[in-house]
Structures
1.
Amino acid sequence: MIKVKACTRYFRVSIAWLALLSLSGVSAQVSEKVTFGHWALDRTEVTIGQFERYVRATGTVTRAEKEGGGFEYGAGWERRPGWSWRRPDGAVPASADLPAVHLDFAEAQAYCRWAGGRLPSGSEWQKAGFTELRSSPPAPWVKGRTYAWTTGDSPQGANTSDTDPWPRAAPAGVTRAGVNGLYDMGGNVWEWTTDAQGSQRRTVGGSWWYGPVQMKSDVQAFKPADFYAVYIGFRCAFDLPSPT
Ligand SMILES: [Ca+2]
């Protein structure tokens, strides 16, 4: 379970990615949601900055804050004192665009309700994540095609435990845009869905902790709904008025 990355290769890849990102100019001009007819999905995982606005508006104090800190996997699940969405890794986060984590299912759902939406179902998430639904997608995306990965034909460009520029979580919009122009559907942090097995809820997409195989659509990763950890986040779905 230990994440190892070769330093020399890491820096070489980082330089290549920085050059690529400087050319692509992602995130600045794109809307925050991707629309699929009667519903929409957040383009990125919900960020610390977005969650902070919710906390300021509602006075919410999360369970990780009240209960002594969020969890990270070490020798089993270990509570990390002081870790919460405010300090995902125990320190002031480098960017407000990092994903909001250390939130259980109900806390994620409460945020989405406040934002006018809800958590997606597993099937909604899966369709948006793997099947290109845009009417005129930019190259190389093909309308109607279902891809093997959320990033297309390969997992390259996602933030997993494989060699990439991100040792832990990555800020929104810096990884490679995937199917439907969505970011981090695979990798970065797991995302809560409403799929239930008793008191458990399905998380999808894998995370920076795991290899790319956890990104696949058929992964069934259910977690206790009241669990929160450093690599579980979420994004919201929104029901839209039907076209008349
Ligand atoms: Ca994700």
2.
Amino acid sequence: MKRWSLAFAILVFLLGTTPVLTHAAGNTGTIVGKVVFTGKAPRNKLIRMGADPKCLELNRGKKVYQEVVVVNDNGTLKNVFVHIKEGLKGKFSPPKEPALIDQKGCIYHPRVTGVMIGQKLKVRNSDPTLHNVHAWSKAGNDFNVAQPVQGMENEFNLKAPEVMLQIKCDVHPWMIGYVGVLPHPFFAVTGDDGTFEIKNVPAGKYVLQAWHEKFGAKTVTVEVQPGKTVTVEFSYSGSESAALNPGFTMQELRIHGRDMTITPVYDSDER
Ligand SMILES: [Cu+2]
């Protein structure tokens, strides 16, 4: 009996002091899924870079579009930020590698990314022209740095959870990017096949949210079981409006040509 109490005491100690241990392999699972698009994709605007001859030169012979809505060949949606919104307990270690945004051809690569608090956000200027990286935050994650020289890099420490932080260039108004800032590493962004994968998730029940810059946020509930993979599907019809998205900042609404107060919360549930 005493031995059990000791073992229990040690377990409680471990749980209390090193939460990461409780998420060791064996007690975690994987969330995979895709973001389906069923509607008709609106046309993205052609970007006119004439204001900066260097940007024009870098994209010579190419037509560059504002990639607000990118529907992949397999009918899925690119650049959707998927993250665990509710249900996580404990603390998590941030990835050691910084998240990278590269300014190349006067466009942010990637357009949508995520970073964990404690992980650095690195912004690189790969262009032979001046970029000014300006984060517009509602949560205290603002920064504003000029990068006049090709190859320049700056690293930023973001402090507060924010879905999403908007990044803009004060020199090139078409440059827009989004960063999901989270207190945990359980996020992913859909790519060219519209899929996402979130690994090493502690077993439990969660609210998983998908966020798209034009179509807003959707949530599903998901249960992760140890050693298993759970599959989730989000679906957008194209009729959703980001204006009703509580995750949107006023800057974002202005980008989409609206300037209105957000009142109701229509976070459509797809269970
Ligand atoms: Cu720029």
